[in-house]
Write a structure and sequence with these properties.
- By secondary structure, the chain is of the alpha+beta class.
- The chain folds into two domains: 134 residues, 3-Layer(aba) Sandwich (Aminopeptidase); 132 residues, 3-Layer(aba) Sandwich (Aminopeptidase), CATH 3.40.630.30.
- A twelve-stranded mixed beta sheet has the order 1-2-3-4-5-12-6-11-10-9-8-7, sandwiched between helices.
- A hairpin with a 5-residue loop joins β2 and β3.
- α2 packs antiparallel against α7.
- The N terminus is likely disordered.
Length: 353
């Protein structure tokens, strides 16, 4: 997008259906998480409504925009860009355009939260404070497979050899049953390792419904014999392969199935003529995950969480949050069947944003 030099007209649009937002969602500053199919999957799963403002040049062409959701539930009223998304970099070329599209949501009442890469024009806005920082990793697919294999760490190459010797094989699937198999493993991992719920299987199914018709949704299943020991969900948007969800069975980690999945993803990206694998967000307090992604990625950036206003908590909201935490602990006990944990997550996950 070119720098804005003329007076802008700012209009409100539905980012799921408006073709002008789709144009912005394919620009260099946008990502999967501001794309219409991703927005549709999130909103239709949880009953949210996405709102957007776009800036139009005198010609009527869209030059920048911002998308968010307005939430008002037991945790209070707040604006998020965006729920359950790694980031939502606003597709704006400069601060002037950012200021134009963000004016209504950056007053601080209600509080507004945005996560984006640290070079976004939003990151220099004095109305926003940085409240958190995470890591982002990417692997450019700008060479052949032999060169890309040389670029990954020596440890990653040794792990790949171990996986091959152990008989780990990775299937690339595009069907709904593969999505469900991945979700079952995801529920188990979230429950047993982190004592947390997983997002509902309905969300995974809606992602598949939105992306599969365009051939942009693939599930990688790592098997040893007939058992799925690791899995990952990848989505494509505008020449980038996005790693969105991953899970593995702890008892089989010594076989290095995750390394086999990551390398298969790189190979798939090359085969499909994509330009980048986006490994997504990693919290800084998860050094093991950050270190694992560094073995594969040649780019590391910072993702910043920005906020306008303060999240005030009333006694009733605090009581709800405490009860939600206690329910989570109770329903992720090892003695609770995975099916019950999964159902509880489907009921409660919308409150974790």
């Amino acid at each position: 997008m070119r720098p804005v030099t003329s007076v802008l007209t700012v209009v409100a649009v539905d980012p799921v259906t408006d073709p002008r937002w789709r144009t912005l969602a394919t620009s260099s500053r946008a990502s999967l998480f501001t794309s219409p199919p991703w927005l549709a999957a999130v909103c239709r799963t949880y009953g949210f409504a996405a709102e957007a403002r776009i800036a139009l040049a005198p010609s009527g062409d869209p030059v920048g925009g911002l998308v968010w959701t307005s939430l008002d539930d037991a945790r209070g009223r707040r604006l998020l860009s965006l729920p359950f998304s790694d980031r939502a970099d606003p597709p704006v070329p400069d601060r002037a355009t950012w200021d134009a599209v963000s004016a209504p949501v950056t007053t601080g009442a209600p509080p507004f939260t945005l996560r984006c890469l640290d070079d976004s024009p939003a990151a220099s806005d004095p109305r926003l404070s940085t409240i958190d920082e995470a890591a982002w990793h990417g692997t450019p697919l700008d060479a052949g497979l032999d060169e890309l294999r040389r670029r990954i760490s020596g440890q990653a190459r040794r792990n790949l050899a171990s996986a091959e010797r152990a008989g780990v094989r990775v299937e690339v699937r595009d069907d709904i049953e593969a999505i469900r198999a991945m979700h079952r493993l995801h529920v188990r991992l979230r429950k047993r390792k982190y004592r947390l719920f997983a997002q509902p299987v309905g969300f995974f199914e809606r992602i598949w419904e939105e992306f599969a018709p365009a051939g942009a949704c693939s599930t990688l299943l790592a098997r040893v014999g007939d058992e799925v020991v690791a899995a990952a969900l990848f989505l494509e948007w505008e020449g980038v392969l996005y790693y969105k969800f991953g899970a593995s069975a702890h008892e089989h980690l010594r076989l290095r199935p995750n390394d086999a999945v990551y390398w298969t993803a790189i190979r798939r990206g090359v085969e499909r003529g994509l330009r980048l694998v986006d490994w997504g967000l990693s919290d800084r307090d998860q050094p093991g995950l950050v270190a694992f992604k560094r073995k594969w990625a040649s780019i590391e950036r910072s993702l910043v969480t920005l906020r306008a206003g303060e999240l005030t908590v009333t006694p009733r909201q605090r009581e709800f949050t405490v009860a939600l935490g206690e329910l989570t602990c109770l329903l992720t006990e090892n003695s609770i069947p995975d099916e019950i944990t999964e159902q509880a997550g489907a009921l409660l996950y919308r409150y974790f944003c």
